[in-house]
Design brief:
triose-phosphate isomerase activity, Aldolase_TIM, 8-stranded parallel barrel, TIM Barrel, binds phosphoenolpyruvate, 8 strands, TIM_sf, 15% strand
């Protein structure tokens, strides 16, 4: 077990209305007051709710995150949102390279790296997602795949910057499937990720924090969060219920 602080990130994905967000955030704020100061909560609503949720959590311990940004700071990019626009709204974190964006928007590691650099440039903390597919895992290529994603998507100096940096290990086969990776799997894989980060960044100091994500529930959170190389969790489905999300945070 470790006593360092834990980062509990809720990714709402494409869910939520002004009414549902008001209820959910209200419940989360009520419960968050009881959490120890070592637990940091981050809520990542869709772009449409960032401003509203940002106003609701103002002055609380909960921080705001976005689910993507574009690398360019402004311009003729219809439908996209730039990192400085997020910073202007009071956003602190931005999830980048989520497997759903890699899958649906064909995002590459090079694009994810450019987005991370843009985010860092305006003081946002990127949460860079990496993870192997079931096929890669079955072929015995999971570690190779993760090392390649780190080499391609993680900017130089990541983590040592004042904005910091976070890596989310999210095995694709565990996302939204109800199939959480085993504690042993998470332990060995995050140890590998730590080594790959140290090799890529050329240092053992100020390495990015490492989160696990993939069907985390209140039932398994405490066990996952007790792994020495795991600094927190990225939660999808279970972040849409205050009971589940707070139950996960209580495991930290
Ligand atoms: C995610 O998409 O980041 C995630 C972890 O989803 P879920 O918790 O629903 O598997």
């Amino acid at each position: 077990t470790h006593t360092a602080s834990s980062l509990i990130v809720g990714n709402w994905k494409m869910n939520g209305t002004s009414a549902s967000a008001a209820t959910l955030i209200g419940e989360i704020l009520d419960g968050a007051a009881a959490l120890p100061p070592s637990v940091a909560l981050v809520i990542c609503p869709p772009f449409t709710l960032l401003d509203r949720v940002g106003r609701m959590i103002e002055g609380s311990v909960v921080r705001l995150g976005a689910q993507d940004c574009r690398a360019e700071p402004k311009g003729a990019y219809t439908g996209d949102v730039a990192a400085p626009m997020l910073a202007d709204l009071g956003v602190h974190y931005v999830i980048l390279g989520h497997s759903e964006r890699r899958r649906d928007h064909f995002e590459t590691d090079a694009q994810i790296r450019a987005k991370a650099e843009a985010a860092l440039a305006c003081g946002l903390t990127p949460i860079i997602c990496i993870g192997e597919t079931a096929e890669e895992r079955d072929a015995g290529d999971a570690f190779l795949r993760l090392s390649a994603q780190i080499a391609g998507a993680v900017p130089a100096g990541f983590g040592a910057d004042s904005a910091g940096g976070v890596i989310a290990y999210e095995p694709v086969w565990a996302i939204g499937t109800g199939r959480t990776a085993s504690r042993e799997d998470i332990e060995s894989t995050t140890a590998h990720i730590r080594q790959a980060l140290a090799a890529h960044l050329g240092t053992d100091d100020n390495l990015p924090q490492i989160l696990y994500g993939g069907s985390v529930t209140a039932r398994d959170a405490a066990s996952i969060l007790s792994i020495g190389t795991v600094n927190g969790v990225l939660v999808g489905g279970a972040s849409l219920s205050a009971d589940s999300f707070l139950g996960i945070a209580a495991g930290a």
